[in-house]
Amino acid sequence: MPLPMFENFRAVWVEKTKSSHGHGGIGWEFGTCLWSPTTDKTGKQIYKNMVAAREGDLVLHFYEDALYGRELDHYFFGASVVDGAPEVKDTQPPLAGEWANRSEYYRINHRDFTPFADAISIRAFAQKHDDEIKRELLAELDQPFINYKNSIRLAQGKYLSRCGRGLYMLLSEEIPDAIQPFSLPQSQNKQAKNAKQDRQATKPFDYEEYVEGQRAKREMSFFARNPRLVRDAKDHYGLRCKACSFGFGDHYPGLGEGYIEVHHLDPLSERNNENDGRKLTNLSRVTVLCSNCHRMIHRLIRKHGRSISIDEFKKSVLMEKHGC
Fold first, then answer.
1. In order of start, what are the domains of the chain with their CATH numbers?
2. Do 286 and 229 meet the contact criterion of CB atoms below 8 Å apart?
């Protein structure tokens, strides 16, 4: 059995999260903690499972996005162990996304995060095990899946769910290789953790580059599926960067002719969902930028956690340049 024995844990949980908000930003990265508001916008305690988690519980991570260039989906991406009791924080994460501006947040640290070599598509998993998951829903409450119009799908708005034994066994069968860290004795676990830290020390993980890379992949994926929008944007805005007036054709004669990058003005529109094709046909929601300005405006978007206009971007660059 690739996953550890279900009976080894007091409880098993499923985290359902997404990359569009960077899992919260620096200090709240995916693989380090679970977090949520303490209530929804109306004051309802829909995140009460967060206070039910305990030290040593197992967490299975369903992560939304194409981490390795795949199509958008939730993926069963890895597992970890709860490390300590849930905390209540009165400050929000740097990138709180749609959970911004709440008065308090839950945070649960976890350890021994182990990503899988091959992430498992939840959509494909649900289709493959449709009947079995339906039976599991009858046997266990509070599952991450629901039966919607007689087909299985992930429950919307459900961040942390319980994973019953039946579902756990189905998920374990999908993992090609055994997961080692959770079954090692404590002394070996410590050695493995130290070795992992040594490896990370020689090749540090640049979180900002990771988030920017994922955002760029989402843009590229969207525009690749919507070539007419790219053509219309170029016809409407021209081939010079709207931030710095750079023209690829001027600097790279022949090779650069006709090239410019199209940019989403609203970062929320980069969440590749089924409505994207309708949402972004409006040219007022895109513009054209050179590669450098395109990359830098995304850094500014990530820094502030909101959309940034071209005028605001230009003012910010000037202020930084002159030390204002």
1. 6-204 (3.10.590.10), 209-321 (no CATH)
2. yes
Q: Per-residue confidence at 68, pLDDT binned at 50, 70, 90? A: very low
Query: Do 74 and 64 meet the contact criterion of CB atoms below 8 Å apart?
Result: yes
> What was the pLDDT predicted at 228?
82
- pLDDT surpasses 80 at 49: yes
